[in-house]
Amino acid sequence: MDQVKYLLDEDRLPTAWYNIAADLPTPPPPPLHPVTGQPIGPADLAPLFPMALIMQEVSTERHIEIPEEVRSIYRQWRPTPLYRARRLERALDTPAKIYYKYEGVSPAGSHKPNTAVPQAYYNKQEGVKRIITETGAGQWGSSLALAGSWFGIEIVVYMVKVSYQQKPYRRALMENVGATVIASPSPTTNAGRAILASTPDSTGSLGIAISEAVEVAAQDPDARYALGSVLNHVLLHQTVIGLEAQAQLEMAGDYPDIIVGATGGGSNFAGITFPFIGAKLRGGRDVRIVAVEPAACPSLTKGRYAYDYGDTARMAPMVKMHTLGHTFVPSGFHAGGLRYHGMSPMVSHLVQLGHIEPTAMQQLETFAAGVQFSRAEGIVPAPEANHAVAGAIREALRCKETGESRTILFNLCGHGHFDMQAYMDYHAGRLHDFEYSDEEVAMALAGLPSVGA
Amino acid sequence: MDQVKYLLDEDRLPTAWYNIAADLPTPPPPPLHPVTGQPIGPADLAPLFPMALIMQEVSTERHIEIPEEVRSIYRQWRPTPLYRARRLERALDTPAKIYYKYEGVSPAGSHKPNTAVPQAYYNKQEGVKRIITETGAGQWGSSLALAGSWFGIEIVVYMVKVSYQQKPYRRALMENVGATVIASPSPTTNAGRAILASTPDSTGSLGIAISEAVEVAAQDPDARYALGSVLNHVLLHQTVIGLEAQAQLEMAGDYPDIIVGATGGGSNFAGITFPFIGAKLRGGRDVRIVAVEPAACPSLTKGRYAYDYGDTARMAPMVKMHTLGHTFVPSGFHAGGLRYHGMSPMVSHLVQLGHIEPTAMQQLETFAAGVQFSRAEGIVPAPEANHAVAGAIREALRCKETGESRTILFNLCGHGHFDMQAYMDYHAGRLHDFEYSDEEVAMALAGLPSVGA
Description:
Two copies of one chain form a homodimer.
Chain A: E1 4-6, E2 16-18, H1 42-45, H2 51-58, E3 63-65, H3 68-74, E4 82-84, H4 86-92, E5 97-102, H5 113-125, E6 130-135, H6 139-151, E7 154-160, H7 161-166, H8 168-176, E8 180-184, H9 190-198, H10 206-219, E9 223-225, H11 232-252, E10 258-262, H12 267-281, E11 288-294, H13 299-302, E12 304-309, E13 318-323, H14 345-352, E14 357-361, H15 363-377, H16 383-402, E15 407-412, H17 420-427, H18 438-445
Parallel strand pairs in A: 5-15, 6-7, 6-9, 7-8, 10-11, 10-15, 11-14
Antiparallel strand pairs in A: 1-4, 2-3, 4-5, 12-13
């Protein structure tokens, strides 16, 4: 028995995103101004984001309409397929049913265009000429580069230097559609120059790249800043994934007992889980939600739930989140999209409310899972997605032990075509596991601001 | 106005492949034994292929049923989308309508799994334990590697050495699913050793790699050989592309005036065009068929229509085809999948019958087209596919000149995620055009066999 594919008709592409803020028993703590430490309002964010996105960021409406212009572009690759992974089930010899939603069919090969397209759209609506952003592994940057080329907006990407050097093909993908890509830290900003002065051979971090992008955007009245994860409006846009999955599982006559997601900033995780968590918050069926993060960047499992800056240079607002500290530079590991020092405040809040079980996984287990998945399902997952695959395999093997049949759903957020070097390193035995000691984590957390602690 | 996508319901996945041999006014000349020069029969091919594929090779039945086991795997990514390229039309400011079928959604990122899956299936049915093949750029090898992992067949791939060295990620894709990849020419075969003795620094060619694979397969009773293009049964399997496109254009209420395809061995070209040529041969509507080949490997436009060996070491049968000679080693250019010295005998025959217009295109024009296409449509085409894109753009610009609206269809046979180095080279000005002189072609053709000339 091979895979089963569940495809939604195009007319069932969601017409609205789902906003979990509408269903929370208590709201998450507000963001604070990086200098005054006071709660910030929409006006404070206006230099960075178009007003439509700021209003989405603070909205408590349950459904936010997807503009027809955005749906028209979504239709290029959406609704994405939901697969029943029968070949993987057979390979694992498990009584569990494993479903995965596949976001690698997008033109950028990941879930990131789900938010890149509406972000570019709203910026265009408000007359923005260029968008400045950062990227780690390059999935977000290449998605925004594409969206920019469609809407006629100039895109400037600060790319974490280690990725800029190690992932020239992701960079080429951005440059090929006309984006400007700058290795971060760079001499083009105060934030970058300060880092280069103190650490000339810095390989960069998402926190540093965010500082550079925010600095440039704030100084240019024709420019705005864009972020590919973490923020409420970004998570909101990703809920198309879970909304489609709900309809597809209904087609399959099934409902998940367990949903597994990989967490970096939280957007792909929120995309697949929030519609299900929302249904549960409104009195619907219970579902276990498992968040898998890399042991080498363990914000949920080893970080502190505290106010912290979103960026290294402390220009972005402070938000309450699980964080390893804004100066934290994660050790080298291959899931570049999961290397953020913090976690989406909304995901953090739901962890605090007890709706999400965080777990950390070692790199070697995630790659072993990715290889097993490739052989069974034929799709090579991105290293980020391997965390979800590995989490789902763990749950399926637990079912095998107990003999229970459970329905497991996960999001395969992207393919690994740009990450084959990582697989080559894995097969050659050049990858290794990594664990931070409590002392190292304590040191990284020492720089947390005292505000709101 | 954005792209329009035409999706077929899964229950409209073709149930049979289309065999153009049924509709030919005259059959193509038969293949000849490489030693005796006599027409060969099914028994001669038995050491190389399973009998089911040999029977397809010589069949004149119009419809050949697709086994349910194959359809079940096809459904993972088929039916593939047909797009109306409205953004590209707008960028070109053309009155033409441009449609493209997109085969890059397959797990290997190209059209090659359409034939890799049935080839692995029929081999499995006949108890074959391992399949030996060759690959140029790696699209075929990675597709067969996947199919092998699904059917539990060992796959050994002789990869043209220049690609083995320059495309480590395609190789990693094959090895990741358990295939063995050997750089060709290699010391593992007589054919390889002979080449290495005379040309120690040979970078290989498809003709040499075929010789090595055929030699190994012929000597191992548990093994068979597989080819990813050229042969009738391979082209047959690819007709799912054109059959789906016919149904999708019907949905769109349209019919192509012009179909453009890229030609290397001929399989993706046949896949999109044969169902339409067949309809015309049976008295249906006329359609111009344009075959675009690289100027650096111009078998259709500069080669001779003559009997030639399919491989360099003259172990494969002789077939009548447009050829540059079996010892021809094409100059370095980036569309590795289009570097075969000959052309499918069936495509060659249809050229002779006047149903296909061949044209050669320079590398720089194809990359310029690929970049323009990327920016408009969001998909980076493989360098092979760029030839079809460039051909379609030429036709669309001709419509702009004449003011005529024509409906153009082409096959976007694969994405370029593994070919970003080529795009980087293009943007950096490191690629160049290439043309063979008549003398060079005459020299290459001097080694043609005299049989059947």
